[in-house]
Write a structure and sequence with these properties.
Blueprint (H helix, E strand, L loop, with lengths): L1 E9 L3 H12 L7 E7 L9 H20 L4 E4 L7 H7 L4 E3 H12 L3 E5 L5 H11 L6 E6 L11 H17 L5 E4 L8 H8 L3 E2 L1 H14 L18 H6 L1
Parallel strand pairs: 1-2, 1-3, 3-4, 5-6, 5-7, 7-8
């Protein structure tokens, strides 16, 4: 199968995108082809609700193009699942949100889970995101952030993992969480080490989203047209040019 991964952050280099593809391919089926694109027109990084709105149109456009190009599923590479409902309205192939999937998986691994994120300012948004994930909000034990030197979680991965371990242990010991969720896709690939160091299951949203896309494809599942009806504007002649 072919999966189009849409990274909603602007300005990633081709080398970085290919590196992410290789990382995701390592946990996918051998016959799964993964292609990641980032936004080029919407010059934002997803750090707020405003960023989601500003990036939304280009995300929907890229999801629509992925379907036209023959991809079997779309993965939104952000815990905020930006524009996920709009994408599902526009395309028929599965649209997998890394945030929604990770919380659903976490709720299957324990009764309470905590989310680890990059910024104190994002905590309210992460708390609210549980409500539209389909998971009972009472299952959320906490959201904790870490202070990353320089702001880039991947610049010094050992330091990032150390900070995640410290925050994760607080979630487990103080907040009584049973499971941890990596709350930013920049933490992708760090889950296994964090799990070994904390003794807790750790859900990596990047990996969970890819594997869920595979499950949907091979079980011939996609979102309900009753839940996500195609918008009326899609039937207008101009809409196909716009999307």
């Amino acid at each position: 199968m072919r999966i189009k991964v849409i990274n909603p952050d602007y300005g990633m280099t081709a080398e970085t995108l290919r590196s992410r593809e290789r990382m995701l391919a390592a946990i996918a089926r051998p016959d799964t082809v993964i292609s990641m694109d980032c936004l080029t027109d919407s010059r934002v990084e997803i750090d707020s609700a405003l960023d989601v709105v500003l990036a939304g149109a280009e995300i929907v456009k890229r999801a629509s193009q992925a379907e036209k190009d023959g991809y079997d599923a779309v993965v939104l590479y952000c815990l905020s699942d930006p524009a996920i409902v709009a994408c599902r309205e526009v395309v028929r192939i599965p649209v997998i949100g890394a945030g929604q999937v990770s919380m659903l998986v976490a709720s299957m691994l324990g009764y309470r889970f905590s989310v680890l994120t990059t910024s104190f300012q994002r905590i309210p948004e992460k708390e609210e995101s549980v409500r539209y994930s389909g998971v009972d909000p009472s299952r959320l034990a906490s959201v904790r952030s870490i202070a990353i030197p320089g702001g880039d979680p991947r610049k010094d991965i050992p330091t990032t993992v150390r900070l995640l371990v410290e925050a994760g242990r607080e979630c487990l010991e103080k907040d009584r969480a049973h499971v941890l969720v990596l709350g930013c896709l920049s933490f992708a690939g760090m889950g296994q080490e964090l799990s070994e160091l904390t003794g807790s299951p750790v859900v990596d949203p990047a990996f969970a989203a890819i594997n869920m896309a595979e499950l949907f494809h091979f079980q011939h599942l996609s979102h309900s047209r009753i839940a996500y009806p195609a918008p009326p504007a899609r039937e207008r002649s101009w809409s196909h040019r716009e999307l």
